[in-house]
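Re-run with default settings, no changes from the original entry. Doing this only to confirm the output is reproducible before filing.
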Amino acid sequence: MHSYASLSRPLTSLMIGLAVLASAAIGAGSGIGEHSLPVLLGFLIAVIFGMGGNAINDYFDVESDRINHPERPIPSGRLERKHALYFSLILFAISFVLSLILSFVAGYAVFIVVAAALLLQVAYELRFKREKLIGNFLIGFQTALAFIFGGILVGNTVLTGLIALAAFLSIAGREIVKDIEDMEGDRDKVTLPKRIGKAKAGVAASLLILLAVLISPLAYYPLHIFGWEYIVVIAASDAIFLGSIPLIFTNAKLARKILKFAMLVAILAFIIGAMSA
């Protein structure tokens, strides 16, 4: 994979864009076609912003990545560190300008959300990356903003709030799993596993994931937002989430990958639910 593509982690960035599409579809329902231009532009903004976030993350994580992820572009020597910074700044600038343009169509709340996401990214990288428990929740909140962003694009954020909460919990749980996986290389960071041990941190991550799973069926019952199509797909996602929990304690790396796949299936469930509502 090309160094810049590897740096930006396209699949992870695409998932952020899909979160925006899903929440827009939830908010607009059958009227999603009336918002096609702002939704597509919002999807593009989210993907580009996510790529920038991944790039700047690798810029700041170079020392721990030499141990935890030596195959990544910077520690492997395939890309100079300063080039990762330049790349991320360009991507952030593009998403920022696009959000400003989009705000003239969909309202200035669009620009405010992107600006808030950027501030959270900067706060995480400069301050809370080493205080990882707070940082984990910041990343979760930033992901929840993607769902709120999609609702703003179509003028309906009420229905997307529940989904945003589930996303916040599952992402925060996954971030703790990543800290368990990266414990050896996170020598200069105060992470939850380093504070309370791997086992207790695994329990904390599992509880957050369980809460997300418990929230997910509520859109079917008792709220009746989605139909049976949603509950079938979200049940599959929840099964994958639950199946990852034992692995948190034995193979955190595999658990992290499975959690990412479970989130992708959950996003698919939200899209299917919205289209069939």
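The CA atoms of residues 140 and 168 lie 4 Å apart. The chain has one domain: 3-276.
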